[in-house]
């Protein structure tokens, strides 16, 4: 369960005009680099929360070890 | 069912009931899971290669990521006596791969995002890895954060509310590159990403209710932010070249230019493979051939062999400069959108070399008082009142107005189109509007 700090951070950040930059900074904590690509993958993943007509799909393509899988997720 | 969760990067920030991660894919497994989980709108799956997966699986994925999937088969629960129909709505599918499958239809259904590293980035990643092991508190903090969930995850599940429709009053500013059939698909993708961005910003907007449906207005800043984050990926996808390919072409072009300036190579614009390999800092012969073969497949280069000197000469077949500047939408789109911004401080990820707007918008009294320049009409405003306002606006202006100028005045495009259809207003031969 998220604590009060996380809740208040969320309430403030979703009202911040620089919301996309803040999302980028949060994504940076888990995966370094590929800024625009990472934010694009995030928005595509979030499109799943919208009605079906607005959903998009993507394929991350890169040479081995470039971080194409790490951009999505890696096991702990 | 316990969710197999991958605790990193993008997936970490999504609410549990919103996505699935499939390491192994079986059609019936995915079908059954998605049928039982109506809130799941996003799936992540492992590398998809045609040679590894069967044909029906590829078709199934194409289908669920394109328009949803419907299948009728015998129902096992009634001992195959009855028929049962499985329906899966359209899903946002995401996967990572080291090689793209040789299936144009499949690639067309996915936005291809090229992930390319470079030595400074590798250093940054390695420094980050070392930092985590230097201070154990960082690892403890990171694990705690993963357990409690991030502010993005909380916001997506608890703060943001579903929206039924999106309205884009400034959509006329968006000028797609109509030269290829792909532009139709890319335009929809661009609009969808702008809608996602508007949805994320919903706490800063007023949600309209029309006929009991929730409607969110997509502002020019959402379109511009969508352009900034996806322009590179869609342009590469549009040209069918990755950013690595473009980098190689750029290097060939640069070497050829240098040669012609120094008159080193009388043989037109061919460059030596050895020199190219050195310019790209590729150590292995396999590495350079891998890059060249990808470009050769796309007919972007010509390679001729010089058997006497055991060397190869390479020339580009494409106009590299225009390819690098090429875009899935016309650049004037950016200029137009910038004129209508209501909150310029919300623009993110702007390229430094992006062209500046050609004309500075004239300041209106509203702008000088620090208020947003866009006067947005209330969608719930009675229709007659809206029409009256539109007529007044047309009469008040000495110079006749175009559709774009009326949108600038705050009249939604959809409303103007309705008025044109109902012949409340009409378009003059010079494209201005009469009332």
Overall description:
The complex is a heterodimer of chains A (76) and B (435). Chain A has 76 residues and is mainly alpha-helical. In chain A, 42% of the residues lie in helices and 5% in strands. The radius of gyration of chain A is 14 Å and the shape is globular. The mean pLDDT of chain A is 85. With 435 residues, chain B is an alpha/beta fold. In chain B, 45% of the residues lie in helices and 14% in strands. Chain B contains 18 helices and 15 strands. Chain B has helices at 9-12, 27-36, 55-66, 104-109, 119-134, 136-148, 151-159, 182-200, 220-239, 243-262, 273-279, 285-297, 320-325, 332-339, 365-368, 383-396, 403-408, 413-421; strands spanning 19-22, 42-45, 69-74, 83-88, 92-97, 111-114, 165-167, 208-210, 213-217, 271-272, 301-306, 311-316, 401-402, 426-427, 432-434. Chain B has a 3-stranded parallel beta sheet with strand order 1-2-5, with helices on one face. A 3-stranded mixed beta sheet of chain B has the order 7-9-8. Chain B has a 3-stranded antiparallel beta sheet with strand order 10-12-11. The longest helix of chain B has 20 residues, at 220-239. Chain B is globular and about 85 Å long. Mean pLDDT of chain B is 77; it is low at 1-5 and 353-380. Chains A and B meet through helix 1, helix 2, helix 3 and strand 1 of A and helix 1, strand 5, strand 6, helix 5 and helix 6 of B. Strand 1 (58-61) of chain A pairs parallel with strand 6 (111-114) of chain B, so a sheet runs across the interface.
